[in-house]
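Subject: homocitrate synthase

B.,
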Amino acid sequence: MAPPRDSTDTNDADRVREPIVSPYMPKYPDPMSNISNFKIIESTLREGEQFANAFFSTEKKVEIAKALDAIGVDYLELTSPAASEQSFNDCKTISNLGLKAKILTHTRCHMDDARLAIETGVDGVDVVIGTSSYLREFSHGKDMDYITTKAIEVITYIKDQGKEVRFSTEDSFRSDLVDLLSIYKAVDKIGVHRVGIADTVGCANPRQVYELVRTLRSVVNCDIECHFHNDTGCAIANAYAALEAGATHIDTSVLGIGERNGITPLGGLLARMYAADKQYVLDKYDLKQIRDVENIVASAVDVTVPFNNYITGYCAFTHKAGIHAKAILNNPSTYEILKPEDFGMSRYVSIGHRLTGWNAVKNRIEQLQLVDLTEDDAKTITAKIKELADIRPLSLENVDVLLRQYHSAKQTSNHLNVLQQYVNPDQLAV
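Prediction pasted inline below.
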């Protein structure tokens, strides 16, 4: 993580143009931090299938898998082949696509599931079992001795087949710490590739996450994967805290879809990590592909991309207030920590409203190449826009009509009369 840049130089030619993330970022990162060395396990085709509206045909799964692979995610996690015959066949199909991403499937800690997973040809198996008192009593009914014995049996079998294997506890943050550390140490000892922590009910906060991951990092040598549900809105923050504490892998889904409120959203995580180590993220992932996969998934599950969605929401790079607009036009870094062009997006300065400023209107005049109009003209037109926008907001097309009419009338010195004739935005209809 780079230290904050020195922005005290007053020479305009040397002015900092790149975003300064924060003067409060640590100059030296935590020695255990993996902020600049993490992997994404993309679970839209597993966790995402648990979303209320989700039903993915094989063809749609293939389309999503290819779109995610184009971004450069490290792993794709698929629904357990034990779920249904089609799920089994889909695992085989996607495993045979020749994608760059490794293909995983997610199974119960059960030998029958493990054998089915191996038959599909996946690169690895993500094994899970509940360890909280709630799940042990009301779900599978097994004690920790049974869980440990079964985990060792299943992991050993999968490893013997030459496959990557992760062992995760379910409902980790409501499980007893001694139980967790005991079973993680046992599976680490037999060579599991990753252990997983799952905030299954979304109850954890970043401080709890940091402390648990940091403790686990001190007792196991293998990688650490984290899976965060978003019931209380902490999924991205928890993922970031986990990486700071030494986690190596984060589970995501497109638009965050999944059980209930879903999990860490892929786009949101990449935005957060871009702000932490921009070059690492740009070098590893094709951020311009995010919008495409979100549109594919949104259409498939019959939802719209939220207006305030990370990166791709239609408001993400829209600037409205006059003070904001002026600063953005001088230097986008004043109000943008993410560069829209790095994500294949564009910024938009909204000007057809009562909060607009003359600098934004002047910028639109320049875009339209209305070269005869001065700053005084821009200020005059801005006052008219505000007056009309008190009735209702103007579209950009409405504003353009007003600007062009004013410009044309200025050739005959009739421009002020032109403004007076407009008393209602509807008169500017294209």
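The first strand starts at residue 39 and ends at 42.

T.
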